[in-house]
Amino acid sequence: MILEVLSSIMKSRFWEPDIKTVAVTLVYPYFQPSNDNSIFRFPPLGLGYLAATLKEHNVPVELVDCTFLSQQEAIRRIKRSKPTIIGIQSMFSLKNKAIEFAHLLREDCELLIAGGPQPTSSPEDFLQHFDVVVVGEGEETLLELVNEAENGPDLSKVKGIAYKEGNGGKTRFTPPRGFIQDLDSIPFPARELFDNDGYKKYYSSNYGYTTTPMITSRGCPFQCDFCSRPVFGNQFRSRSAANIVDEIETIIKLGYDRIWFADDCFTLNRKRLLGICNEIISRHVRIGWECLSRVDTIDDEVAQKMRQAGCIRTFFGIESGNNVVLTIMKKNATVEQAREAVNIAKQSKIQVGAFFIVGYPGETQGTVLDTVNFASSLPLDYLSFTMPYPIQGTPLYERVRDRMAVEEWEEPKNLRLVKHNLLFQSSLSEAKLKFAIVKGMTQFYVRKYLRSRGYMLVGRPFEHFTSFLFKRLR
Ligand code: B12
Ligand code: SF4
């Protein structure tokens, strides 16, 4: 009798050790395409943050980043980790793969959770395949889900989620969680769970340097028409300069020689930016870095300080070479500002990359030509053109949703010359836009490598001839 009582007490929660019995496996279902040489190939920072929070609370956690794995190997690793909870990250482009994984892993866990930008903007699409969708920032929500999984679970208590009541019942949304205000309170991402060797090998063999991502702020107050900010929203929140540089030091210890700042706009707040640069300089921290900027945030003093603090390259979302189109995009910046920002950065010896979009709703063939001609005339070190991607929740999506040509984003086939698909019906055909992209890239390289004399001899006639062809093309 006494033994029975003792054993029932032992089994009760009172006797549980501090280590949780729920084990979590986090999955980034992205597979590197063959012949990949993208300058943006990163481990999943968001999952690194989730893993760090779980670890801080003694929750056993594993991270499976599929980037350098085969699907078979990825599934084997996930199953081998014997998870109670599987959490799968998804963004716009990973939706199909995340759902496929959910089906393959359904029997291998007790709770299947989707999280990330796409589940946040369209939870319903994921709830047909997952038990729970985490809406927004995941650190606190996932931890609470783990605690619930141990205790109940009573999902209705967890803020910031969507789930189906009963078996296939009504969708329930719990109250929103709200943004994490003190970003310094979040532990640094669990970088020891990233395949650092794999990423270093990838970068050093393709580019001769090694880089990894880090994020110093969350949220962006701008309202660009095509941009989806479901997770971090419009409220700009920043970490302190000291906290940022503390994390930079941990990255240096891992042996990387560059950092890619994944902030929506690293240069948004001038005072903050100068503060970070000064902290890097005063602590003698030496590492190269790259970041995303807006063209209206750069001036000479800022650029020089950035360079002094190690900035190697900055990327501007210039988007268009036509001010009317920039207004349609609600970019709140002009072509003139873009040229000036590129020149300012170059004068401070910062390399410049720029992103452009062709075929935006409201564009004419004239404005597309403005964009490719403007882009190729800039002294850029990196240039990319894309077609518009209408992502659910954006004003762009609302405008074209009735004329979507394909329901889902597909990874463009790697062997195609221009790796972009036009996802909606437009008066400017996909073939025409692809032609514009090839024209823009060719003009860019001709200018870059043939310099001004070569440009006058070859580049300019090429520009005129291809503009003529472009207008003829249907
Ligand atoms: C770095 C980055 C990339 C990298 C890769 C990212 C990676 N390895 O994770 C590269 C450059 C390759 C990339 C490519 C693209 N990207 Co991108 N990218 C980003 C960027 C700038 C930062 C991502 C990041 O690290 N965030 C920081 C971490 C901490 O946040 P997080 O990942 O969202 O994670 C948090 C939550 O989402 C949640 N969470 C995330 N996963 C999970 C999983 C679970 C289980 C749970 C519970 C919670 C959870 O918790 C985390 C912590 O709070 C974001 C913008 C942004 N601000 O996030 C765009 C963003 C994610 N990208 C976007 C897009 C559209 C693309 C492209 C389609 C662009 C294009 N036109 O080609 C391509 C897709 C390429 C492909 N083939 O998949 C959109 C996604 C929108 C959407 N609704 O899905 C974003 C939001 C940009 C934007 N504002 O439009 N991108
Ligand atoms: S495109 Fe950049 S500046 Fe515009 S809303 Fe998105 S993150 Fe902000």
Describe the structure.
The protein is globular, with a radius of gyration of 24 Å. Helix 9 packs across helix 10 (270-282). The strands form 3 sheets. The chain has a 7-stranded mixed sheet with strand order 2-1-3-4-5-6-7, sandwiched between helices. Strand 14, helix 14 and strand 15 (382-386) form a beta-alpha-beta unit. The chain contains 16 helices and 15 strands. Among the domains are: 2-173, 3-Layer(aba) Sandwich (Rossmann fold), CATH 3.40.50.280; 346-474, Transcription Regulator spoIIAA (2-Layer Sandwich). The chain is α/β, with parallel strands linked by helices and 474 residues long. It has helices spanning 2-11, 45-56, 71-80, 95-105, 117-121, 123-127, 139-151, 196-207, 241-253, 270-282, 300-308, 323-328, 335-347, 365-377, 395-400, 430-472; strands at residues 24-28, 61-65, 85-89, 111-115, 132-134, 161-164, 171-173, 211-214, 217-218, 237-238, 258-261, 288-293, 311-319, 351-357, 382-386. Bound molecules: cobalamin and iron/sulfur cluster (SF4). The site of cobalamin has 41 residues, from helix 2, strand 3, strand 4, helix 5 and helix 7. Residues 30, 40, 42, 44-47, 49-50, 87-89, 91-94, 113, 115-118, 121, 134, 137-139, 142, 213, 215, 227-232, 262, 264, 386, 389, 391, 411 line the site of cobalamin.
